[in-house]
Amino acid sequence: MFPRQLTILGVGLLGGSIGLALRSVSPTSRIIGFGHRRQTLDKAMEIGAIDAAELDPAVAVAGSDLVILCTPVGIFESLLKQISPSLSAGALVTDVGSTKRSVVRSAESILPKSVDFVASHPIAGSEKRGVEFSRADLFSNQLCILTPTDRTKPPALEKIEKFWQSLGMRTVRISPEDHDRLLADVSHLPHLLAAALVAMQEDAGLDLCGKGFLDTTRIAGGDGGLWRDILLDNADNLKAGLKRLQSQLAIAELMLDSQSKDALRDWLDAAANRRQKVLEKKLREINPD
């Protein structure tokens, strides 16, 4: 269940939290961190997220039985090419990326046959950036999506699944294609909309905004480079979601034009009721007792 040596490639919020979470359940596991900035790696060591730091990813993965890609998805392919020759036979590789089709394609074409890859997406995080915001309990009672393919070996899948569960996560398995289609609507599109809502405002309006606006646009505070890579990587599904959203906005515009009081109320109530059911379901999942 616990790796003898774990390498975290990208020690930011998620990478640092993985290190702290593993440390809390497996104190004997050795944790190696890779990053581009020595200052970030020093901070990760200071808070106890990693035991050792490397600026070269190939050196960082040497001897590790588990490697987790925690960088932006846009550099996954380059990173896989750099680490591939240095991975130990029998090593497991996974990731925390918010898109899955591209990383699966890259990993299955680049990594040697002596290494097993299982794609993962832990649904946990924050709009805050940096390893200094890492928390050992970030993954507790949260969902991790695993996206196996026909080439995924069952023992490897089970090991990665048990790893995330050991950090307190619930797990589910779906295909990479279903993951990207569904997450486009419930994760990627909301981020795009939050950014658009902020971008469209007049300065005078922002001076008057309340907590509701800040709550609605909270996720717009995320890292622009990280989210750029996610949105571009899942552009086809995101554009399909935008079209469905536009149809709903067109319905809303028609109700406003026609002053359809009852229809507008019913439309708003239906959304409120649906959201409440989702909220109650999520609360039951988090607190099953």
Largest sheet geometry? 6 strands, parallel
Number of helices: 12
Broad shape: elongated
The secondary structure category is: alpha/beta
Order of helices and strands: EHEHEHEHEHEEEHEHHHHHH
The order of strands across the largest sheet is 3-2-1-4-5-6
State the helicity in percent bands.
40-55%
The first-to-last residue Cα distance is 26 Å
Structural Rg: 21 Å
- Strand percentage, roughly? 5-15%
Low-confidence stretches: none
Mean pLDDT comes to 95
According to DSSP, the number of beta strands is 9
What does this 3D model show about the protein?
By secondary structure, the protein is α/β, with parallel strands linked by helices. The protein has 12 helices and 9 strands. It has helices at residues 13-25, 38-46, 57-61, 76-83, 101-110, 154-166, 176-199, 203-206, 211-216, 224-233, 235-257, 261-286; strands at residues 5-9, 30-34, 52-54, 66-69, 92-95, 116-117, 120-123, 143-146, 170-173. The strands form 2 sheets. Strands 3-2-1-4-5-6 form a 6-stranded parallel sheet. Helix 5 links the parallel strand 5 (92-95) and strand 6. The model has no long low-confidence stretch (mean pLDDT 95).
Record the SSE blueprint.
Layout: E1 5-9, H1 13-25, E2 30-34, H2 38-46, E3 52-54, H3 57-61, E4 66-69, H4 76-83, E5 92-95, H5 101-110, E6 116-117, E7 120-123, E8 143-146, H6 154-166, E9 170-173, H7 176-199, H8 203-206, H9 211-216, H10 224-233, H11 235-257, H12 261-286
Parallel strand pairs: 1-2, 1-4, 2-3, 4-5, 5-6, 8-9
Antiparallel strand pairs: 7-8
Helix pairs in contact: 4-5, 7-11
